[in-house]
Amino acid sequence: MAEMTFYSGFVIPFIVGTSVLFAVILYKYMRWMVRLPREDKRLVRRGVFSRATAEAIWESVAECLLHRRIWKVNPLLGYMHTAFALGWFLLIVVGWAETAAYLGGRLVPLQGHIFFKYFTTSLDHAPRWGVDFEAVMDLLLLYVLSGLALALFKRIRSRALGMRRTTRLTFGDRVALTSLWFVFPMRLLAESATSGIYGSGGFLTGSLGGALVSTMPAASMASFETAAWWGYSVALGVFFVSMPFSRYMHIFTEVPLIFLRRWGLRSGETEKSFDHFQIEACSRCGVCIDPCQMQRDAGVTNVQAAYFIRDRRYGKLTREVADNCLMCGRCEGRCPVGIGVNALRLNSRHSLNGTPADGRYDYVKGLDTSTGSRVFEGAGCEIGYSMKQGRVGFYAGCMTLLSPRILKAMEVIFAAAGEDVWWADRNGGVCCGRPLKLSGDVEAARDMMRFNEGLFRRHGITVLVTSCPICLRVFREDYALEGIEVLHHSEYFERLLSEGRIALSASDDGGLLAYHDPCELGRGCGIYNAPRNLLHAVADLVEPTETRENALCCGSSIANIHLPGAGQLAIGRAVGSAFEATGATEIVTACPLCKKALTRGTDLPVSDLAEVVERHLKVAR
Amino acid sequence: MGAINFGYTVSAARAIDLDRNDLGPARQIAAEMPEFAACIACGGCTATCTAGALTNFNFRMVQTLVRRGEYAGAWREMNKCMLCGKCRLVCPRGINTRGVVRLIKRKLGDY
Amino acid sequence: MKRVIVIGGGPAGMQAAVALKAAGLEPVIVERSDALGGKLRDWHNLFPSATPAREVLDGLRKAVEMARVEVLLHTEVEGLTPDGSKPSVEVALAGGHAVQLSGGRKLEAAAVVVASGFDVFDASLKEEYGYRIYDNVFTTVDVERMLNEGGVALADGSAPRRVAFVHCVGSRDEKVNQKHCSKVCCVTAVKQAMEMRALFPEADIYNFYMDIRMFGPGYEELYQRAQQESRVNFIRGRVSEASPTIDGRIQIKAEDTLVGRPMKMSVDMLVLAVGMKAGSSCEKFARTADAALSPNGFLAPADLFSGCVASGVPGVFYAGAATAPKTIGESLAEGSMAACWVVEYLDTLAK
Q1: Are A265 and A38 in contact (CB under 8 A)?
Q2: Which pLDDT band holds residue B4 (cuts at 50, 70, 90)?
Q3: Which CATH fold would you assign to the domain A11-252?
Q4: Which listed CATH number (1.10.8, 2.60.40, 3.30.1340, 3.40.50) goes with A362-498?
């Protein structure tokens, strides 16, 4: 087999492309890894030899090759992605096996594997190891080509693949996409030409090759073959060079991301090196676009997760794109790569908008307007320690303070349950800090959080109830409240009910309730059942089409500091119509802000869960 | 009212001089956020403001002064805002008050 | 056919019907409630002259009676279906003993005057003001009713020592989808503040306003009398919220914008000057007649100047607060005007 030198001029584009690809990728990964903050590095060291690694291997196979999560979005879309990923992967693996089967342990350069057919025309291609490699390789090629056909179809009619909108492409994406589309048709032509000339090939390349030979004179056939292999190599080379600079960077990056995530790394409230793995693992597949209500109802089409990540990756992120998002989390829940886009957006906001805390909230020091606590009165505003144990504190939050029906309901329910309550902020209090944090002012927000923490501790409460999911989330995620159990009022009511401290009577007015999941409560804190269980106890409940994990955002999210009132209203109206379509006679939610937003968006009555519970309290106990 | 004397007294020397005041930044802010100009000075924002109850921060007045080209101290005043959003909920003109606070801070930030 | 259907038996509708009859046509008033008079029935004394509402109402009723105008009470109009020169009205009888006819009945007419009026803004939608949450929060409509019933008092029957009026509740407020000025609430609140003064000579009375819009004859003078003679305190600031105090009063917060400082005060009685909302049937009429609606939900007249009672649809005319907030006087004027337009329209058709 002396003629098998595994070299021909056309392999140069491929070699160059591959070298550039691996050089760039290695450079990027090394850089990002080296720059990981110390605690992240510790997580990596601790994680490498743990179960997490095995789980990461399985997840990599399931997601990067089989694309399980995309299959769940839409089977056709899943097929398309799997055809490319798994098909190509198998072409490489089986290709290596084929080389090994025919050439034994001989060391073959990379291009020898890739252009195997071209360099091994002298071989007898009869099955080896009991495998008809030519047929298998043709089958795999056909598999990838079927995915390509679907991809072309998707560009024309994305709706058929379950996507109303797909992402707009960057220049790098276009180059990569075009070359990628050429890779497999060129491979088909090249292998077919060689198979035709030498009478080899499987059912696909063999028969196409035969057809080519029969329609072309031998001389042109030879130049056609060379041209096709050049074309194949050039397509590969161009694709490989453009890959690390385009969205196709995700092909490799998803793997380290899966490992790092399994080892416990997460994006935080300030930017850090790990963010790169998340950002470059985004394939801009666009699954995030359709669920976005900013796009759907407010007509804002440049802020969706894929575009935000793209802009950030290429250093073109504007405040508008970072800020004009409800951070409702609907897209995050559907991301096939599991990118934590809300955390990324938050730390972008910190970089763009964060200002030094500057002790700007020092004026709240010493403030205590709380009521209902029997603490001994010291000099001036000094507050002593409450002697009473097991005290329940209630923090209304700014939005509840503007919703007196909720406050009144809470009062009635507390009284019915015989609860001795400490009211943290009934006469006005200090904001929980989450709105400020969501705007990117992380450091200043921390000052507020520390203030409220101190207030809660001073009064010796052991349970903290809040009717506001925004406050709830920040209490759970950012406050240091060891020893104080933080409950949403829905959870608290459920507990009162199960302990028999309150009783509810079902209504007989034939009313039909529909429950709206607040983003911060549902996707934010994972509380879906507590409110529903309570509502089930008093009336019939219907669900809108998009509910629970997929629930719509009311549109007035505190996380969006950019959207003008008209946009909020447009989203609120769309949500309102979704509820009207259920035939419900009343909408119930469990967030004062959602309540206000929905009241604007529909003519149906909108109540907070607390009001419904109050209405159905069995008075005689 | 203490050390910060922000527009509470208007003596002849402190008259707002629209011939001299540079309205450029105010126009820029209005261009970026047109709602900025929609205030009808009802004071609802200031009435409900937590920071305004504890300090002499007055959102309505500060943003009005900014519209008149009176920028001194505006950034420092806006820095008292907790961004809690109550003012946005009560604003009858639906002004994105939190956005206004941030925009004023960004445009007039003096550090 | 000489029949003209007048939808709504309020001031505008009654006035239109009387004028139509005088012009030799056969008006039929279709009224969904149990009596003529519309919301005028609920008012006590009318601004700015303190003329008893009953006087105006009785005059109108007498005129309708004398003219022998046909009146269909308890009847709701389901929709207008213009048919070239011969609009017909689908009339469904609702309520009472005529239910079985619902949907089936059809009333033919040569023209229609829509005088369906407005709805009172539901103050409980401004939750932060505490209406239907705290005992002593009322609306200006409640106050008219109490005045008619012979006494304004707190829930426990006692006299208020401090009363605050809140202007612009459900007006000029995007948060409740009511961008428009309801126009009559300012003068109503001023009028009621003066009535409160007469009832409670020792009470403190405050009016919280964003702007005082005294557009009518004698209104500004009324305002000045309220300030000077009735000792009503006017504070320029929108109340942001009301909350209960420990002693059962209501604490309100506002900014005294003329001083530039937030203020709070406790009151015994809070009166919300509620605005006018587009009538709930406007949408239905516009849809079925293929006529235009204004963004605020009222019916849109064809032209704000020379065609303010015209709908743009042949044979369909408007009168009164169906097209925008209006005073009683303006509604009456439009009733007459709409009748003129109907006569002219039918004359043109006949030629």
Answers
A1: no
A2: low
A3: Fumarate Reductase Cytochrome B subunit (1.20.950)
A4: 3.40.50
Specify the DSSP class assigned to residue C178. Answer: B
Indicate if the alpha-carbon torsion angle A323, A324, A327, A330 is positive or negative: negative
Domains of chain C: 3-117+279-350 (3.50.50.60), 121-276 (3.50.50.60)
User: Which chain B residues have any C-beta within 8 angstroms of a chain A C-beta?
Assistant: 35, 48, 50-51, 53-55, 79-80, 82-86, 89-90, 94-96, 98-99, 102, 105-106, 109, 111
**What top-level class would CATH report for the domain A512-615?**
alpha beta
At residue C99, the pLDDT reads 25
Q: What is the mean pLDDT of residues A431-439?
A: 96
A298 by DSSP, 3-state: which?
coil
pLDDT digits (tens, 9 = 90+) for A319-336: 999 999 999 999 999 898
Rounded Cα distance between B26 and B37, Å, is 10
Touching C (3+ Cβ pairs <8 A), the chains are A, B
Cβ contacts (< 8 Å) between C257 and chain B: which residues?
41-43, 46, 60
pLDDT tens digits for range C288-334? 888 899 999 999 999 999 889 999 888 899 999 999 999 999 999 99
Domains A11-252 and A362-498 share a fold: no
Provide the H-helix boundaries in A126-217. Answer: 133-156, 171-198, 205-215
Residue A44 pLDDT greater than 80, yes or no? yes
How confident is the model over A53-75, as pLDDT tens digits?
Answer: 999 999 999 888 888 888 888 88
How far apart (Å, rounded) are the C-alpha atoms in residues B4 and A320?
Answer: 33
Global confidence as pTM: 0.91
Q: C48 preceded by cis ω (within 30°)? A: yes
Distance from the B10 Cα atom to the nearest Cα atom in chain A, whole angstroms: 26
Q: Looking at the complex, does the CB of residue C127 fall below 8 Å from at least one CB of chain B?
A: no
Domain residues for the domain of B111 are: 45-111
- Distance of alpha carbon A82 from alpha carbon A67, whole angstroms: 6
**Beta carbons within 8 Å of C100's beta carbon, 6+ residues apart:** none
- Residue with token string 């919300």: C272
Q: Which residues of chain C have pLDDT under 70?
A: 82-104
CA distance A289 to A292: 5
In a domain? residue B3: no
Question: What is the number of structural domains in chain B?
Answer: 1
Q: Are B20 and C233 in contact (CB under 8 A)?
A: no
Look at residue B68 and tell me if it is in a domain. Answer: yes
C234: amino acid identity, one letter: F
User: Interface pTM (ipTM) of the complex?
Assistant: 0.91
d(CA A190, CA A84): 19
pLDDT tens profile A489-509? 999 999 999 999 999 999 888
Task: Report the CATH architecture of A266-353.
Answer: Orthogonal Bundle (1.10)
Give A424's contacts (C-beta < 8 A, 6+ positions apart): A370, A393, A394, A395, A396, A452, A455, A456, A459
In a domain, B32, yes or no: no
Enumerate the domain spans of chain A.
Answer: 11-252, 266-353, 362-498, 512-615
- Tell me whether residues C128 and A402 touch, CB distance under 8 A: yes
CA–CA gap between residue A284 and residue A305 (Å, rounded) = 9
pLDDT at B2: 45
Tokens of C123: 């103050």
- Residue B62's Cβ-side half-sphere holds a number of Cα atoms within 13 Å equal to 27
Q: How far is B99 from chain A (nearest CA, A)?
A: 5
The Cα diameter of chain C in Å comes to 74
Subunit contact A399:B89, Cβ cutoff 8 A: yes
Q: Is residue B95 part of a domain?
A: yes
Alpha-carbon distance values, A229 to A93, A99, C39, C213 (Å): 21, 19, 88, 83
